Amino acid sequence: MRKYVVLVFMLAATLLPAQTRQQWRDSLEVINARIAKDPQNLNLHLLKAEANINLEQWEYALAEYGKILHADEKNLAALYFRAYVHMQQKHYDLAKVDYESFLLIEPQHFEARLGLAHVLQKLGRKTEAIDEYNRMVQVFPDSADAYASRAAYETELKQYDVALYDWDEAIRRRPQNAGYYVSKADVYLRQYKNKEAKDVLNAAVKQGVPRAALKEWYDRCK
């Protein structure tokens, strides 16, 4: 299953590299011609939906994913990217359904879990969102991003003590990530603890982060 997940998520990226809007239009024309000759080819419909997304043709992308899922209700790529399109259109309830359907098939997919947690935030379901972030940390205990994602939401909720703990855990797993130090310093600054914030920035510099890159944050510590 894991190999399949990787393959479907690499499909569009490998066959259609980054392009301008006109190149996407040209690619879409080519893909449509191929679909006309091979209408049952789900991979072509995935590629068409990707082109639609890049052209911000959200309704067309939804239609393509609908066709794919009608033929294959467990198509992971279609579920994942349809959830993404629903997010773009602020159809949060529908995005939630697609992420949950995806995770029933592939429960250890980090990005889908993160997407579900984000949807729950948008829906204002704070307890469920925190539960999902907690589940991410449990499922991915070695992931700095799991701790960082939870810390960011805890900061938003003004749960500063637990946020500081999670930023520490993220830093411990990826000590050279400048953004983690800045985010931790921001938590201290929100609490008017300027000295502690400056200590965090100093720790970042010791890890090799250029001091000049942190000037704005040092200035805020004065």
Write the layout of secondary structure elements.
Elements: H1 2-15, H2 21-37, H3 42-54, H4 58-71, H5 76-88, H6 92-105, H7 110-122, H8 126-139, H9 144-156, H10 160-173, H11 178-190, H12 194-206, H13 215-220
Note poorly predicted spans.
1-16
In helices, the fraction of residues equals over 70%
Q: H/E order of the elements?
A: HHHHHHHHHHHHH
> Which overall shape is indicated by the principal axes computed on the Cα atoms?
elongated
Number of strands: 0
Structural class: mainly alpha
Structure commentary:
The chain is mainly α. Helices cover 77% and strands 0% of the residues. The chain has 13 helices and no strands. The protein has helices at residues 2-15, 21-37, 42-54, 58-71, 76-88, 92-105, 110-122, 126-139, 144-156, 160-173, 178-190, 194-206, 215-220. Helix 6 (92-105) packs antiparallel against helix 7 and helix 9 (144-156) packs antiparallel against helix 10. The chain is elongated, with a radius of gyration of 21 Å. The termini are far apart. Mean pLDDT is 90; it is low at 1-16.
Provide a compact summary of the structure.
By secondary structure, the protein is mostly helical. Helices cover 77% and strands 0% of the residues.
Primary descriptors:
222 residues, mainly alpha, 77% helix, 0% strand, elongated, disordered N terminus
